[in-house]
Specification:
- The protein has 442 residues and is of the alpha/beta class.
- The chain folds into 3 domains: 121 residues, Serine Threonine Protein Phosphatase 5, Tetratricopeptide repeat (Alpha Horseshoe); 63 residues; 222 residues, Rossmann fold, CATH 3.40.50.
- It is 49% helix and 11% strand.
- The longest helix has 20 residues.
- The protein is globular, with a radius of gyration of 24 Å.
- It starts with a helix and ends in a 26-residue tail after the last strand.
Length: 442
C-alpha cells in the first residue's frame, strides 16, 4: 500500500521541476472526499497543497490552505471548503468541511455547507448520511430537513423522499416555500412519468426530466456501461449532429403538439449559426431574441448556455406562452440558474463543429489540429440545414416520441409540468447531480 510519505516525495519532485499541475494530480486522490490523509499527516498535506495552490490559483487559496493545516479551529477549514466550492473543487471541499463538521456537530451552517459540497459532487447518499447524524439539528432546522428530503430524492429514493416531505411543515418564509415547491414538482414529475420510463440508475433521460421538466433528446452510447450512462465526457460536435438535433426537436415538439412559428436567435455566434440552421430546416422566420419586446411564441435556440451571461440567463428564466428554450450542448458538471426545456446532449468537454479541433490525418495516422471555421454564420447555418440525416442516426426515434408524448401529459399543481408546455412561472435550475451517477474527469 502506498504511503503518504511516498506521495509527498513525488509531489516535491514535481514542484521542484516547476510542474504544479502534476503535483496537484498526485495529491488530489488523497484529498478527495472522504480523504485518505491521516489526521497526523493533515498539516503536511495542507502545507504542500498551499504551495501547489499558489502556483495554480494564486495567493488567496494558498493562504486559506495554509491556515487550514491545524485541526483545532473549524473556521479555517470552513473558509477553505467554501473557497474550494467556488473553485469547483467539490471533492476537496467536502473533505475539508467533513473534518470541520466532525469537530463541531452543533453548527447548522457548517453542516449545510458540507451538504452543498457533496451535492455538487453528486454524492447525495453521503449528504443524507451526514444529515441523519444530526437529529437535533434536523428537529429545529427547516432547511436541513429539506436538504435531507431533497438529497433522498436526488439519490433516487422516491418513497423515502415522500416520507421526508411529510416532515416539512408549512414554510414560514418565501425561501422555504420555494424549496418545498421544488421538491413537490420533482416528485410530481416522477409520479407522472414513472410508467413511461425506468427511473433506475441508468435512466439519464428519465431522471433529466424529473429533475428539470426538460427532455433530453440524445443519449450518448459511448462508454455507457463503463460509467458515463448517457453523458459525454469529451466530444467533438459535428454539423451533422446539429442537423440531427433539429429533427429531434421537431419530433419531440410534434409529439407534444407544439408548433414552431418562428425561431429566436441568442446573440453569441454559435447560437446564431444553429438558429439559422433551425429556421431554414423548419421553414420558419428567424428573429433576434429580445426579452423586452419578445412575447411571441417560438423556439429560442441556444447552442450552449454556458456562453450566456447572468443578465441573459435571468431574461430566460420566465416561461412565456408558446416559447420553448432549446439548448443543444449542455455542460452537466456545474449548476446553472436556468435549465432549458429541451437539451440535445450533456457533456463535460465539448468542441463546436466550427471551432479549432483535433483530427487524425488519414495518410499518416497522426493527430493534427484543424483551424477554426471563420465563415459567416449565415453560410455555416445554411450548410447545416442542407444536410440529409441518415436513417441510422435516429434509431431511437420511436422511444423519444413515446417519451415526449408521455411528458406532455404530466401535471403539477393543476398545470402541465413539462417545460416546453409551461406558460407561466420560472424555469428551474440545472442541477449537476441526480440518481444517475457518472464518471467525471478531474
Amino acid at each position: 500500500m502506498e504511503r503518504f510519505g511516498d506521495v509527498l516525495s513525488k509531489i516535491e519532485d514535481a514542484l521542484g521541476a516547476g510542474d504544479a499541475r502534476s503535483a496537484f494530480a498526485t495529491l488530489r486522490p488523497w484529498l478527495a472526499y472522504p480523504g485518505r490523509v491521516a489526521t497526523s499527516d493533515w498539516g503536511r498535506a495542507m502545507e504542500v497543497f498551499s504551495r501547489i495552490s499558489r502556483d495554480i490559483a494564486g495567493d488567496h487559496l494558498a493562504e486559506l490552505a495554509a491556515l487550514a493545516g491545524g485541526l483545532d479551529d473549524v473556521q479555517p477549514l470552513y473558509d477553505l471548503g467554501y473557497e474550494l466550492i467556488e473553485q469547483e473543487l467539490f471533492d476537496l471541499a467536502a473533505t475539508a468541511l467533513a473534518r470541520a463538521v466532525e469537530r463541531r456537530r452543533d453548527l447548522p451552517g457548517l453542516l449545510s455547507e458540507l451538504v452543498a459540497a457533496l451535492e455538487r459532487d453528486g454524492q447525495h447518499v453521503e449528504a443524507c448520511k451526514w444529515l441523519r447524524k444530526a437529529p437535533a439539528l434536523l428537529d429545529r432546522g427547516y432547511v436541513l430537513r429539506f436538504l435531507l428530503a431533497w438529497n433522498t430524492a436526488m439519490s433516487g429514493d422516491l418513497d423515502g423522499a415522500r416520507a421526508q416531505l411529510a416532515s416539512l411543515t408549512e414554510p414560514s418564509t418565501s425561501s422555504e416555500a420555494m424549496m418545498l415547491e421544488r421538491l413537490r414538482a420533482f416528485l410530481d414529475r416522477a409520479s407522472g412519468i414513472k410508467r413511461a420510463t425506468a427511473l433506475d440508475g441508468d435512466d439519464l433521460r428519465g431522471w433529466h426530466y424529473v429533475l428539470h421538466g426538460s427532455i433530453l433528446l440524445r443519449v450518448s452510447p459511448h462508454g455507457f456501461k463503463e460509467g458515463m450512462r448517457g453523458r459525454y465526457a469529451f466530444t467533438q460536435d459535428s454539423e451533422l449532429r446539429c442537423r440531427e438535433a433539429i429533427e429531434r426537436v421537431r419530433l419531440a415538439l410534434g409529439a407534444m403538439g407544439v408548433t414552431v412559428p418562428r425561431v429566436f436567435s441568442l446573440p453569441d455566434r454559435a447560437s446564431t449559426i444553429l438558429a439559422i440552421a433551425a429556421a431554414r430546416a423548419l421553414d420558419v422566420p428567424m428573429e433576434e431574441w429580445d426579452s423586452d419586446t419578445t412575447d411571441d411564441p417560438g423556439l429560442i435556440v441556444a447552442y450552449d448556455l454556458d456562453a450566456a451571461g447572468p443578465d441573459l440567463l435571468q431574461q430566460l428564466q420566465p416561461h412565456r406562452p408558446g416559447q420553448v428554450l432549446w439548448e443543444h450542448a449542455s455542460r452537466w458538471v456545474v449548476d446553472r440558474p436556468v435549465a432549458a426545456d429541451l437539451v440535445t446532449y450533456v457533456y463535460q468537454y465539448n468542441v463546436a463543429p466550427w471551432a479549432e479541433r483535433s483530427v487524425v490525418d488519414r495518410k499518416t495516422g497522426d493527430a493534427i489540429v484543424t483551424p477554426a471555421d471563420d465563415s459567416p454564420a449565415e453560410l455555416i447555418g445554411a450548410r447545416i440545414a442542407a444536410l440529409e440525416v441518415p436513417d441510422g442516426e435516429l434509431t431511437d426515434a420511436d422511444a423519444l416520441n413515446a417519451f415526449s408524448l408521455a411528458c406532455g401529459a404530466v401535471v403539477h399543481g393543476g398545470e402541465l409540468a413539462t417545460g416546453a408546455l409551461r406558460e407561466q412561472g420560472l424555469r428551474p435550475r440545472q442541477w449537476t447531480g441526480g440518481p444517475v451517477r457518472s464518471n467525471r474527469f478531474r
